[in-house]
Design brief:
Helices cover 40% and strands 20% of the residues. By secondary structure, it is an alpha/beta fold. It has two domains: 221 residues, Metallo-beta-lactamase, Chain A; 95 residues, no CATH class. Strands 1-2-3-4-5-6-7 form a seven-stranded mixed beta sheet. Strands 8-9-10-11-12 form a five-stranded mixed beta sheet, with helices on one face. Strands 13-14 form a two-stranded antiparallel sheet. The structure holds zinc ion. The site of zinc ion has 7 residues, from helix 2. Zinc ion binds next to helix 2.
């Protein structure tokens, strides 16, 4: 049995509740603070009874119960950020759950059982694309399993308020749409105190995964100006937007509090610049499949999930370079190759 640990910290006016999760990111941080007489919670943690127990224990030590929380803002639709929304709402019907329009629509679509076939079809489409990028048939089938499995773990809760980029809450909280790690990802900016709640958009030690995701057709139709072929570009633009806000402290969904936001943002940008250069150099007059490039970069003995993440990371950079006309893609024997 996995043993959960938790920790409570107070940074300025913000409570940080850090609780373990039994996977890669190691722990999840949710934040609780008071604004305009309301208790605001950023993210809803991980859906597990043990996680919930730890969360309740920590808020009890500051004299609060679920019933005392007024607003819960969800940064993005991943499992470790939306986990307990349904339970929170059941326990406290007065709780106002806030989500971005995209997060709401994707969650609703993914968790609606009548969309099972459509999701499977999409997963197959993505997996075939990945096979063209160099995956084996065995790896392709595992991707289909992966994409059809995760939606089953999510629980949907209709939000009480749907937000869009630039919306304001409780006077001082600004919603910043920061697509990249997830299409509907938002950061929450406390303009008065210059606090930024960054979800997984900005982390202290690792650069968040910029991925390809399964997006329902009605959303691609709604967001016609969004370049789905160059998510990395959107991510980098989102970083610049945050930098311009000049936050004093960043409170991320994992890892440590960031006290030097500008430096951290620059370091993330630098990381992507270097990776773009490295990838460009590897394929200079040397056409390779994305899979091969990812093996060169990340090694060949990764497990399933990590080898898919590595491919997806490399692909994000290749699509950026292709979109900018810096590299070329061509097909040979049913596989896609890139060269610069
Ligand atoms: Zn996360």
């Amino acid at each position: 049995m996995y043993k959960f640990k938790s920790e409570l910290d107070k940074i300025d006016e913000v409570y940080k509740i850090k609780i373990d999760v039994p996977f890669q990111v190691k722990f999840v941080c949710v934040y609780l603070f008071k604004l305009a007489d309301q208790y605001v919670l950023i993210d809803a943690g991980f859906n597990s009874p043990a996680w919930k127990k730890k969360f309740l224990k920590e808020i009890n030590t500051i004299g609060l119960n679920i019933e005392d929380i007024d607003v819960c803002i969800i940064t993005h639709n991943h499992l470790d950020h939306i986990g307990l929304i349904q339970e929170f709402k059941q326990k406290n019907p007065n709780l106002k759950i806030v989500m971005h329009n995209i997060t709401n629509k994707i969650l609703e679509w993914e968790t609606d059982k009548s969309n099972k076939e459509e999701i499977e079809k999409e997963a197959i489409r993505v997996s075939i694309e990945m096979k063209n990028y160099g995956l084996s048939e065995e790896e392709r089938l595992r991707i289909v399993k992966f994409f059809t499995y995760w939606p089953k773990l999510r629980k949907y809760q209709t939000p009480d308020k749907i937000v869009y980029d630039g919306d304001k809450l409780l006077n001082d909280l600004e919603i910043i749409w920061t697509p990249g790690h997830s299409f509907g990802h938002i950061c929450v900016f406390d303009a008065k105190r210059k606090y930024l709640f960054s979800g997984d958009h900005i982390l202290s030690r690792i650069t968040p995964h910029i991925g390809n995701f399964i997006i329902p057709d009605f959303l691609t139709d709604e967001y016609v100006d969004y370049n789905f072929k160059n998510v990395l570009e959107h991510y980098l633009q989102s970083l610049d937007r945050i930098d311009k806000l000049n936050p004093k402290i960043i409170f991320p969904g994992h890892q440590e509090i960031i006290y030097n936001p500008h430096e951290r943002i620059n370091a993330i940008k630098e990381h992507h610049k270097n990776r773009l250069n490295d990838i460009s150099n590897v394929i200079k007059n040397n056409p390779l499949t994305p899979k091969r490039i990812s093996q060169i970069h990340f090694g060949e003995d990764l497990d399933d999930i990590n080898s898919y993440m590595a491919l997806s990371e490399v692909l994000g950079h290749l699509l950026y370079l292709e979109d900018r006309g810096k590299i070329e893609k061509f097909e040979k024997n049913g596989k896609f190759y890139y060269k610069s």
